[in-house]
Amino acid sequence: MSRIQQTFLHFPGKLYSRLVFVEGDQLSLQIQDTPGGIQAQDHLSHMTDSLSKCMQWAEGFLLVYSITDYDSYQSIRPLYQHIRKVHPDSKVPVVIVGNKGDLLHARQVQTHDGIQLANELGSLFLEISTSENYEDVCDVFQHLCKEVSKLHSLNGERRRASIIPRPRSPNMQDLKRRFKQALSSKVKAPSTLG
Ligand SMILES: Nc1nc2c(ncn2[C@@H]2O[C@H](COP(=O)(O)OP(=O)(O)OP(=O)(O)O)[C@@H](O)[C@H]2O)c(=O)[nH]1
């Protein structure tokens, strides 16, 4: 059993595994569904260790609120800040999702509130209805996977860039000297042979 699975075993939520294709690449996803109900007034230091451990393993986050529940919207910012604390050195992708977009009559959170928060936090934002449109859910995961892949390839390139030394521009003086040397050795060659 992998360490990631061991961590998830102690967590009171469901763990799903899926193989998905993102831009032609097959990815293996481990999705931890965390229990809801974390309210803004809850102090995040009370967040269980296991949730923080899950956060450490995760390479991307979906923060979902309900557009019919203003409290759930207010819990997004502290959750986001906690993610940044757990991942201080990396810009791990976070997508903010306003769910229950079909319940317009019960709306408590306006679309522009979601957009504004996401802009402020530098996250992608989508408003969806999981019960009305299954494709919305796929879109959300596709967006997150793309962001995670982007970060991976960026980090890979950075690492490669730091390993491979930049080629130095040719030193013209040195080239001329070596060219002269090569010429004179060719000219001298017959006398040394003879
Ligand atoms: N109308 C509507 N109802 C939804 C939608 N998404 C979820 N629900 C309902 O909201 C309730 C909670 O849904 P869950 O999927 O259990 O939500 P959750 O965030 O996992 O809840 P926790 O188990 O507390 O974490 C259920 O009754 C769902 O049917 C949606 O897009 N539209």
From TrEMBL:
Name listed for the protein in its UniProt record: Ras-like protein family member 11A isoform X2
Superkingdom assignment: Eukaryota
Encoding gene (name): Rasl11a
